[in-house]
Amino acid sequence: MIEYDVIVIGAGVAGFTAGADLAGKGYKVAVVTTGEPTVCLSTGCIDLCAGPSAREGLEALPDEHPLRRLSLADMEAALNGFKKTMDDLALTYTGGLDVNRKVLSALGSFKTTCLVPDTMAASPQTNDEAIHIVTFEGLKDFYPAYILSRFPQASFSVYDAGASTTMGIASRFEQGLFREAFVAWLEGQRIRENKIGIPAVLGLEDTQGVLREIEYHLERPVFEVPTLPPSMPGRRLFNALKAHFRNQGGDIYWSWPVAGVEKTGHLVEAVFTPTDGKPNSLNARAFILASGSFVGGGLTATRETIVENIFHLPVFVPSARAGWFEDNYFSANHAISRAGVLADSSFRPEGAGFENVFVCGGILAHAQILKFGCGNGLSLTTGYAAAKACAEYLS
Ligand SMILES: Cc1cc2nc3c(=O)[nH]c(=O)nc-3n(C[C@H](O)[C@H](O)[C@H](O)COP(=O)(O)OP(=O)(O)OC[C@H]3O[C@@H](n4cnc5c(N)ncnc54)[C@H](O)[C@@H]3O)c2cc1C
Predict the structure, then answer these.
(1) Sorting pLDDT into bands at 50, 70 and 90, what band is 1?
(2) Which of 88, 246, 342, 361 is the most exposed place for a label (fewest CB within 10 A)?
(3) What is the percent of the chain where pLDDT is above 70?
(4) Residue 259 belongs to a domain
């Protein structure tokens, strides 16, 4: 008996995007996952391609890059669909293909990105802007001294929130009385600068509401500064993607690591997870592999090579192990970042011969997300494209 139309492996940006698209089209979809995805470590920004604009950056990508498999129309549809969904969930995103925006980091440098959460939209775009930075007693993963050293017109103040972790402080911001006390303290700081930056701890859910409340009282723009991992904006995005998938009618199998597949000829029929007794399996008509790169668990490096763990798909391995890394640790060009699964124009894995398997996200070969600045945006747009190809196959 076929239990699902589609099983998606991986609960990241790629998996939930693909899963929600297909569930929204009426297919019966399940996402199975070992656990939390990489987006929870990320800033929550959607980096699509570095450059003055993502559009210009995309034009300069090498032919083998996975984003080259998508048309600009599909990319725009994926980004617009994402923005509409997030807007409906009160996690508004700003931006688009035509201009990349800068976001101030916890280390005082800028990162460039395609879509920013509304709570970061007022982030300064140059070091000349006059900003006031608020930090919290004992908060690690946030470095106001670095920010101040790069901004000649900046000052800072420190608030004792009675908690020192990002999650702990964010929970405090959910409480009205805490917010009132914080705003009253902030008003007392007599801030002269015309923008206020606060580490990204402004609540777990209605962050936009919290931010607007502070802006209303302080009468100037407020922006969140993403902290080092673990990151609240990344977690908010994960929660929103999960909620959207559920709203579309999708099922989630949490703590369900896929150990292997059952297949007949060119068709995969089921995936299974180990249990104490008989392996637990789930059948479907099609499968989408969105298990991420090394961090997500989709790829593993052995002494000799790099393997894909579930379907044992052919993996592009850039060179012998000795050539995987450059001497400079901070290089964005380590050859290993090109490793991954090669996909054809219909987002099927190349060289595997499976008719009903599609692949998307960070596991794709030649992504080089640091070099090309394409993390969550690659997963979002290829998740959309893999879902489209999968729907064509199913129909
Ligand atoms: C510290 C850090 C900061 C980053 N910051 C940014 C940023 O600011 N902006 C940006 O755009 N990108 C950023 N990125 C990159 C971005 O987060 C990732 O490229 C993107 O989220 C990958 O998404 P994915 O859905 O392809 O895979 P992943 O998020 O890696 O998801 C993989 C999923 O597959 C599951 N899985 C793996 N193996 C199995 C299995 N055998 N069975 C079942 N499930 C399995 C995992 O549990 C997980 O749920 C950052 C990455 C890191 C590490």
Answers:
(1) low
(2) 88
(3) 99
(4) yes
CB of 382 sitting under 6 A from ligand 1: no
Q: pLDDT exceeding 90 applies to what percent of the chain?
A: 92
Q: How many domains does the chain have?
A: 2
Ligand 1 atom nearest residue 362's Cα: 26
Q: Is residue 383 lining ligand 1, measured as CB closer than 6 Å?
A: no
Q: How confident is the model at residue 279 (pLDDT cuts 50, 70, 90)?
A: low
Amino acid at 213: E
What is the structure's pLDDT at 205?
87
**Does residue 387 share a domain with residue 248?**
yes
- Binned at pLDDT 50, 70 and 90, residue 171 comes out as very high
**320 within a domain of the structure (yes/no):** yes
What are the start-end ranges of the E strands in the chain?
4-9, 29-32, 93-95, 101-104, 110-113, 115-117, 131-136, 154-159, 195-199, 222-225, 251-253, 260-264, 267-273, 280-289, 299-301, 306-308, 315-316, 340-341, 357-359
CA 91 to ligand 1 center in whole angstroms? 20
The answer to whether the CB of 227 is under 6 A from ligand 1 is no
Residue 110 inside a domain? The answer is no
Ligand 1 atom 3: residue of nearest CA: 42
255 and 184 co-located in one domain: no
Q: Are residues 242 and 381 in the same domain?
A: yes
* pLDDT of 45 higher than 90: yes
214: containing domain: 123-220
Q: Which residues pair with 280 in a beta bridge?
A: 273
Same domain flag for 154 and 248: no
Q: What is the mean pLDDT of residues 68-73?
A: 95
The mean pLDDT of the chain is 95
Residue 104 within a domain: no
Nearest CA to ligand 1 atom 44: 33
Closest protein CA for atom 30 of ligand 1: 296
